[in-house]
């Protein structure tokens, strides 16, 4: 069980290294990347089953004592996110075959390194390794963003690199300050430190701020809609499933463990959450291409997850974990739909020809499912996620946040309808040439993800149980701390 | 020392010009490295390689700094590479009309559509 923890981090890195010395063999690359990711997916599921009872397998690489070791640990939250991320990467790899993105030089090794960094960040047990693994994840993303991008990619690339570099510098400063005030960087050793000592709270606050930049929380969200839409939609799907979610996961983990869920800061998180929801969804209203609308919605959806963290009750944390898991899948499905639309029409702008529903009904079904889930309509997982979150908000008496969340859902639905009517239903039907370019490799991945969202909504019990276990671990991190510190 | 480095770094970041931004990040990176080293408690420690005791220099921040230096170095190279390519202008959140990014070169091609219509390597679909 514990050695399995190494696979998501080391496996993709090793395979990426081997692939780099075998350039030009696209079939080998595709097969190796897919097999590796499926292996990680299987490992994630095994970990998920193994952590369902609340146990936390820990691996200290090289067998060093806890302070010096590179520790990897999986509780239910980490295992769930690794599984979900691996599923998204799988679908992106298939879509990349269809859209031709993976023919670009070094595309697949870069994706593997990026995914390894993300899995590692979900599993790591100390702040400094979190920084290193986030860098492992970001460096390929710098290249991917400008590699497969369209016009304006260099400018966007510079904005992206500069913002993330500033975020990383801030993160490293925060880690240094935490080390300076406490003498440790392990999450286990730091448990509750920020709740007990104001000095540590300030230091960890710098870490949280940096992670907030990375997860594009308002008011540090501006870089996201400026940079993501430039990249190819498959790459954006990958980024949306991995990059900002790692930041969000780290915010949740650091707040739950280092701050011990300190109620003194709930108002701050709540304000940021509500602002993110509103600003994101309003930004999307004025946009006119599928990718831009969807990136603005990312900001908005991140706000929902953060609202669950801000309330910090058992119900709201369950809702947040469930929301995060389904949202990653749904968002990736929508971006992969955008990839299919763009492969067919050469652009994903809303103006001009539409009518894709008649020639590619499968794609339309996939988009409709994912869009309804994003807007939070039954019977999809998004509905249950929003329902749980709203109920938790009502129980906690956060009526303002609840009202905002409902209104934002309505505007989200409006945006999705806008895309739907412009691209899928409008007359005349899309030409045969457009249809021919949208192959099954492009329609199958979003359909699969939308199907998962449907199943997760109809038969929610297993996922809910996992989310409850994860929430219990966040509310009372004693078990995690004991496992990680080895005491 | 950290203050001076950060001040200089931020000043350079806020100046126009891409090279200054890169240099600003280099200075900021140095500042963070100094903070990391100081976090080990330089003033109350002796040098390493003598007797090992509670006063011996803390090796952990030094390992951190080494890692951080390598990462900063790699990213600096990447930034310089981006600088050399000098492709399109900065995108704007408003869909490519004139914006704060107009400080680049206004005559660059494709600035009307950061959404990717001018992508040259893929099949172009119907005109939109």
Automatic annotation (TrEMBL), chain A:
Biological source species: Micromonospora radicis
Listed name of the protein: Monovalent cation/H+ antiporter subunit D family protein
GO biological process: ATP synthesis coupled electron transport
Domain NADH:quinone oxidoreductase/Mrp antiporter transmembrane, chain residue ranges per copy: 125-411
Matches recorded under Pfam families: Proton_antipo_M
GO molecular function: NADH dehydrogenase (ubiquinone) activity
Membrane-spanning residues: 6-24, 31-50, 70-94, 106-122, 128-147, 159-179, 199-218, 230-252, 264-286, 293-314, 320-341, 362-384, 396-417
Entry membrane topology: Multi-pass membrane protein
Record-level GO cellular component terms: plasma membrane
Keyword Cytoplasm: no
Family: Belongs to the CPA3 antiporters (TC 2.A.63) subunit D family.
Domain of life assignment: Bacteria
